[in-house]
C-alpha cells in the first residue's frame, strides 16, 4: 500500500470499494461457518477502516466545498452500515439472519459506492471539481489507514460508532 500505488485520495477510496466488493462476492460463494465468519470479519474490518478514514479525514475536507446534502447522506449511509457491522461482529454464522444481514450490508454498500462514484453528481466528481488537494488527502488517508490496520492486528478495532446523530455542520 505505497503512496505511489494511488494517484490521489479518490483512487485510494475506490481501491477500498473494489476490495470490499470482492470480499462480498467471496462470501456469497462461501460454504461452511468458518469460511463465512472469516470473510465476514474481513468485510467488517475493511468497512470500519474505510468509514473511519472517510469520516475523520475525507468528508471533513469536503465540507463547504461540495453539496452538504451529499455529505450528510453519506454519513447516514455509513451509520446504517455500522449497525449491521456491529451486529455481524457479535454474531456467529449460525445465528438467525446472519447471511441476510451480510446480503443487506452488501446492498447498502453497493448503493453508497454508486453514489460516491457517480460520474457527474457523485461525491468523488464533486471533489475533483472543488478546491481540494486530493494528493495531500491521499497521504493523510493512507497514514491513518496504516495506523488502523496496525491497531486491528494488535488489539482489534472498536465497535463502529454511528456519527450522523451528532453531526455538526460548519
Structure write-up:
This protein has 170 residues and is mainly α. It has six helices and no strands. Helix 2 packs antiparallel against helix 3. The longest helix has 30 residues, at 33-62.
Uncertain stretches = none
- Listing every helix as H and every strand as E from the N terminus to the C terminus, the arrangement reads HHHHHH
Rg, Å, rounded = 16 Å
Q: What is the number of beta strands? A: 0
The separation of the N and C termini measures 33 Å
Kindly summarize this structure in a few lines.
With 170 residues, the protein is an all-alpha fold. It is 71% helix and 0% strand.
Features of the shown structure:
170 residues, 0% strand, 71% helix, single chain, mainly alpha
Walk me through the topology.
Elements: H1 9-29, H2 33-62, H3 68-89, H4 98-117, H5 123-129, H6 134-154
